[in-house]
C-alpha cells in the first residue's frame, strides 16, 4: 500500500530505466508523505529484506513532516535548497555520496502558472549544487519540473554536468498537466575552479 499515487510515476520510470539498484544510496527530495521513498526502500533493499543482495540507503527530506518508514531516514522540516541540509546529507550517506537524487518537489501552487514554473525551476537548479556535494560520478538525477520559459536554461545547466539528459512524461502523470521529469544520467563532477 502506497502513501500516495505518485508512487506509480516512479515505479513506471524505474521499470523502464532501472535507476534504483540493490545497495544504492538514494536521496529523495520533497519526500512527504513518503510514497517515492517506499518504492526506493523496496528497490535498493534498504531494509535488508533480501539478505542475498547488498543493502542500500534511503534518505528523504521535506519541509513537511514525513511519517516514519522502515528502511528510510527522514529529515522532516528541512529545506532541500539550504546548505545546512546539504551538510547533514553528507553525514548521513555512506561515504557522503549518493548514487541517485530523486526530486518530486513542488512549491505550493500560487495559481499563477508562470510564477510557479519559475519557482520550481529555481528549486531544480539548486539540485545541481546539491549534486556537486553528494552525487557520485556516474550518478543520476531525476527531477520534476513544470514546463515553461525557464526549462531550456535548466536543461542546458543539467547538460553541462550530465552525459545524458532526457525529458519524461510518465503515463501516470495527468496528460493535461505541465508536469514533466528530467532524467539526467552519467554525472561528471565539474572541475573545481582555482
Ligand atoms: N514524492 C512524494 C511522495 O511520493 O510521497 C510526493 C511529493 S509532493 C508532490 C511535493 C513535496 O515537496 C511537498 O511535500 C513539499 O512540502 C515538498 N517541498 C517543496 N519545497 C521543498 C523544499 N524547498 N525542501 C523540501 N521539500 C520541499
Automatic annotation (TrEMBL):
The keyword Transmembrane does not apply. Residues 2-185 form the Ribosomal RNA methyltransferase FtsJ domain. It catalyses: uridine(1369) in 16S rRNA + S-adenosyl-L-methionine = 2'-O-methyluridine(1369) in 16S rRNA + S-adenosyl-L-homocysteine + H(+). Keywords: Methyltransferase, Mitochondrion, rRNA processing, S-adenosyl-L-methionine, Transferase, Transit peptide. GO terms for cellular component: mitochondrial matrix. It is found in: Mitochondrion. GO terms for biological process: mitochondrial large ribosomal subunit assembly. Its main location: mitochondrion. GO terms for molecular function: rRNA (uridine-2'-O-)-methyltransferase activity. S-adenosyl-L-methionine-dependent 2'-O-ribose methyltransferase that catalyzes the formation of 2'-O-methyluridine at position 1369 (Um1369) in the 16S mitochondrial large subunit ribosomal RNA (mtLSU rRNA), a universally conserved modification in the peptidyl transferase domain of the mtLSU rRNA. This activity may require prior 2'-O-methylguanosine modification at position 1370 (Gm1370) by MRM3. Essential for late-stage assembly of mtLSU required for efficient translation of mitochondrial DNA encoded proteins; methyltransferase activity is not required for this function. Belongs to the class I-like SAM-binding methyltransferase superfamily. RNA methyltransferase RlmE family. This is rRNA methyltransferase 2, mitochondrial. The lineage of its organism: Eukaryota, Metazoa, Chordata, Craniata, Vertebrata.
